[in-house]
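From the pipeline queue, job 12 of 40. The input is one protein chain; the requested action is below.

Action: predict structure.
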Amino acid sequence: MKICRYDDNRVGLVQGELVRDVTPVLEELGKFAYPLPKYDPLIAKLDSLKEKIEETASRAKPVPLDRVKLLAPVANPGKVIAAPVNYARHLQEALADKGIHHGNLVQEIRKAGMFLKAPSAVVGPGEGVKLVYTERRNDHEVELALVIGRTAKNVSADRAPDYIAGFCIGLDMTIRGPEERSLRKSPDSYCVLGPWLATPDEIGDPGNLQVSIAVNGEPRQDASTSDLILGVGELIAWASSFYTLHPGDVILTGTPQGVGPVRPGDTMLAKIERIGAMQVKVS
């Protein structure tokens, strides 16, 4: 199942090149009083709503995907947790290129740890990336993103797949410079998620997916998640040892070699095998 958000916060079931409006299922989420929950209500109930989603989709008129504006598939991520230098070849790339490390100490992920991106940075592919500090280098970093489906704390790597609601493509946009990662990676629109949420049954083994991005048709990054230093299960286990993970929390699993700059006017095309592709404009 592939679930998208689009246009004016509609929810759709993606089938091939079509989307069917299943927004009425949101009525099943209930009402929430202040203070609002720390999780995404749709992601929290996704498993129990799958039958209702399919039933609603069967009655909905299909609309071509290229006629809708795709938003981030998670409306309310409580946390966006990111894994730096989690591909061995990207570590070597970062060490060798001063334009990437900018004098910062670069270490492999077991020493570097993970970091947080502001949830306010999250947008969908249809919203695009608005660059700031354009006098600096602004880089694309394509990543496999996973979305937590139920509350997790101190989860083992073996059990971690049970806590995944689904996967999407992530763009961890980055301003190069001397400051801490979270500051340089958290401006508005610097975390693109999309084009939809693909449930685990669509993906199979997340440790064997081709990940790529092209800018204006020029191939930049192209690798397999089989090259991850820490895999999906290990990342969830590690993150849940520090934080309680809630439905809708996102983990960006790291980017492979080939990161490079983008400029206003560029168009990025990011792809991940068995998820799909998303086109993102830069302004």
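Job complete. The helical segments are 41-59, 88-96, 98-101, 109-112, 181-184, 200-203, 232-242.
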